[in-house]
Design a protein that fits this description.
By secondary structure, this protein is of the alpha/beta class. Strand 10 and strand 11 form a beta hairpin.
Length: 311
């Protein structure tokens, strides 16, 4: 029986530090990533791909800013949808090409994905996720006053707008994604954590927020009843006591052990913390979560590297 794996790509799968972010740069990175994913398909896995969108949606917001006198600026949920389309296109085409090299005729499909959030989520009372370009304090305070937005100073680099980061409740397109998987397609979904939407009865509407991409990937994996969640990043294993003399890398741990390390504050809220939490959420269903390096994804599937979390 084929196993279904959700592969959550880290940012370096699409754009690497120091790169300008041209389409050419991103296609080159995506091609390398898709070589590994094509081998997963060749090995018989049913694959669902998720990805980040931070730099891309940030660039779209900058384009909004500089063209707002010529064309209407789009809200954040629409910008998120745009980024899902452009990154999905890159992965979709690149993966098709890599599969074709292997003689594999499998459809690759991008699903623009809406993710339902709870309008009463505490995150809406405390926006924390910075988005878009940097501004001076004077500009930020004026925007906050005129637009009712929340702005915060960001690491000494300037002021940025911050928006809520609510928890994902449900992947709205889960049935469509599941049907595509059963028909043999490789699916690209929940890009950038998905487009945050509020549901009122049978009606949806977008909201200005950013959902953590790893938590959304975990929710997707649960909703489609996947067997494995693989979160790919820029380190080979999860570490405790990071960058201290007692630093230790974790190979295989239980959900309870992972929760204990979370409670100890071992993982940064802006780095490894959400990845471990996402892995815990999925593994708590009795399935397998793996956190590993993008460059060694196949080795991690075979247990030669990475951190595996199970119940």
């Amino acid at each position: 029986m084929q196993r279904t794996i959700v592969v959550a790509l880290g940012g370096n799968a699409i754009l690497r530090p120091g790169q300008a972010g041209t389409a050419k740069d991103q296609f080159v990175n995506v091609k390398t990533t898709c070589e590994s994913i094509a081998r997963m398909v060749k090995q018989g896995y049913r694959v669902v791909i998720t990805h980040g969108n931070g730099p891309q949606v940030g660039n779209i917001l900058i384009q909004n800013l500089h063209s707002q006198d010529l064309v209407p600026a789009m809200p954040l949920d629409v910008c998120g949808a745009k980024s899902q389309g452009l990154i999905g296109y890159m992965i979709q085409q690149s993966l098709h090409n890599e599969l074709a090299k292997e003689g594999i005729n499998v459809p690759v499909v991008t699903v623009l994905t809406q993710v339902i959030v709870d309008e009463n989520d505490p995150a809406f009372r405390n926006p924390t996720k910075p988005i878009g370009p940097f501004y001076t304090e004077e500009e930020a305070r004026r925007f906050a006053r005129e637009r009712g937005e929340t702005w915060k100073e960001d690491s000494g680099r300037g002021w940025r707008k911050v928006v809520p980061s609510p928890l994902p409740v449900e992947i709205f397109e889960k049935s469509a994604i599941g049907a595509l998987i059963r028909e043999g397609a490789v699916v690209i979904a929940a890009g950038g954590g998905g487009i945050p939407v509020i549901r009122n009865g049978n009606t949806l509407h977008g909201i200005e927020a950013v959902i953590d991409k790893d938590l959304a990937s975990s929710k997707l994996a649960v909703d489609i009843k996947a067997d494995i969640l693989m979160i790919l990043t820029d380190v080979e294993r999860v570490a405790i006591n990071y960058r201290t003399p007692s630093e230790a890398y974790l190979t295989a741990i239980t959900v309870d052990e992972a929760k204990k390390y979370m409670d100890e504050g071992q993982f940064g809220a802006g780095s490894m913390g959400p990845k471990v939490q996402a892995a815990i959420d999925f593994a708590s269903c009795g399935k397998t979560s793996i956190i590993a390096s993008l460059n060694r994804s196949l080795d991690a599937l075979e247990g030669r590297t990475g951190t595996t979390i199970t119940l």
